[in-house]
Amino acid sequence: MDSKIYSNLKREYEIKKLQKEEDALSYKNKVFSENEILHKLDEKKNMLAIKSAKLMLISDDITRRIEKENLEIKLKEIDAKIEKELKRIRLSMESFNPKYDCNLCKDTGIIKSKGKYEICSCFNQALINETYKQSNMKKLDEENFETFDIGYYSKKVDKEKYGVNKSPFEVIENIKNIAYKFATNLDNKSVNNLMFIGNTGLGKTFLANAIANEAIKNGKTVVYQTAPILMDKIMDYRFSYDKTSNEKEQYNKIFEVDLLIIDDLGTETMTNNKFTELFKIINTRLLDGKKILISTNLTLNELYKRYEERVLSRIIGNFNICRFIGEDIRLKKKSYKKNS
Ligand SMILES: Nc1ncnc2c1ncn2[C@@H]1O[C@H](COP(=O)(O)OP(=O)(O)O)[C@@H](O)[C@H]1O
Ligand SMILES: [Mg+2]
Ligand SMILES: [Zn+2]
To answer: How far is CA 338 from the centre of its chain?
Structure first.
């Protein structure tokens, strides 16, 4: 692993964690200073803390113990009053917990599992994003299952145009369900890999992002890349003589991550070497039972013309094909804007 990327990220995590904790504390201070009841109770608590420190000075064991118990009772009473007042203003002490990005590791990047320390999946994913410069995944906040709007798909059946007896709306409803099940069942061997097929502007990349987002949310690691960039990276790696450890790491991730998303398959320039590499990746992942999502603007016919039949059949046989139909949403969005 590239130690520079690693140490930079570690630092970023430390800063982020501190920031979140500071934010939480200053929020608590703000609430307590603006509310008279809370402010007074907090002052009392501080007094008790001082008294508690002074207990150490009492030499008589029994007296000290009794005093200590007294203080603890008082402290509990004050805490109860604080909770009561917080509840009145619709808050609780939990409102002042830091809002970590990752609840698993509390933004430390490390989790303890079965007595051992492990790197948290969020940290692994951040490393992947860093090494792959997955800036194209930035849209994840915007493109998720909640924001995927099926209102853009017509409810009219057009068998002549689309060749199916279902409306684009019905089709996308079904695909969305399949996609969600896929995203939340990456470890489930009985759930098939996915292939999105359809014209441009039908939401394939959007839904791929939604899947990536959901998977990462559930602690899975994802490499998302368009076919041209992915293939270039792979070819660079395969035919370079001195490979850095970072390059090796990056290459291995393609095989290791829980989900590999290859977007826009068919837009890369094809050579025999590339084809062999692509097949190797897909085949290895299939054998390891690791999920793949492929998206393409080509039709099945066009795919068969472009790739070797024997190989493509093997791929197709292991994928659940989702055919997107409807009208270009990019254009629809534009005309909505014009009309509004
Ligand atoms: N279901 C949807 N809800 C909202 N916006 C969508 C939806 N599907 C696609 N879009 C938007 O339409 C445009 C094209 O979608 P995209 O996913 O890139 O299509 P494709 O990958 O099929 O070419 C993008 O700007 C995207 O954000
Ligand atoms: Mg796309
Ligand atoms: Zn984490």
So the answer is: 34
C-alpha to C-alpha distances, 55 to 44, 51, 63, 74, 256, nearest whole angstrom: 17, 6, 9, 15, 57
Q: Residue 226 in contact with residue 196, Cβ under 8 Å?
A: no
Domain of residue 276, CATH code? 3.40.50.300
Instruction: Tell which one of 205, 213, 329 to mutate to probe ligand 1, the residue whose CB is within 8 A of the most ligand atoms.
Output: 329
The pLDDT of residue 239 is 82
Q: Is the pLDDT of residue 137 over 70?
A: no
For residue 101, the CA-to-ligand 3 centroid distance in Å is 8
Q: Kindly state whether residues 190 and 53 are assigned to the same domain.
A: no
Q: What is the pTM of this model?
A: 0.76
pLDDT in tens, 291-336: 999 999 999 999 999 888 888 888 899 999 999 999 999 988 887 6
Q: Residue 204 class from Cβ within 10 Å (0-12 exposed, 13-18 middle, 19+ buried)?
A: buried
Q: What is the pLDDT of residue 191?
A: 94
168 lines ligand 1 (CB under 6 A): no
Mean pLDDT of the chain: 90
In this structure, are 133 and 273 located in the same domain? yes
For ligand 1, whether the C-beta of 200 sits within 6 Å is yes
Determine the Cα–Cα distance for residues 242 and 259; give it in Å rounded to an integer. 28
Number of structural domains the chain divides into: 2
**Does 171 lie in the same domain as 37?**
no
Q: Ligand 1 atom closest to Cα of 208?
A: 17
236 Rama sector, left if φ>0, alpha if ψ -120 to 50, beta otherwise:
alpha
Per-residue model confidence (pLDDT) at position 301: 92
Q: Residues 216, 155: one domain?
A: yes
Ligand 1: atom nearest CA of 142 is 27
In a domain, 101, yes or no: no
Domain region containing 47: 3-96
Q: How confident is the model at residue 227 (pLDDT cuts 50, 70, 90)?
A: very high
What residue's CA is closest to ligand 1, atom 24? 330
What are φ and ψ of residue 198, in 5° steps? 155, 165
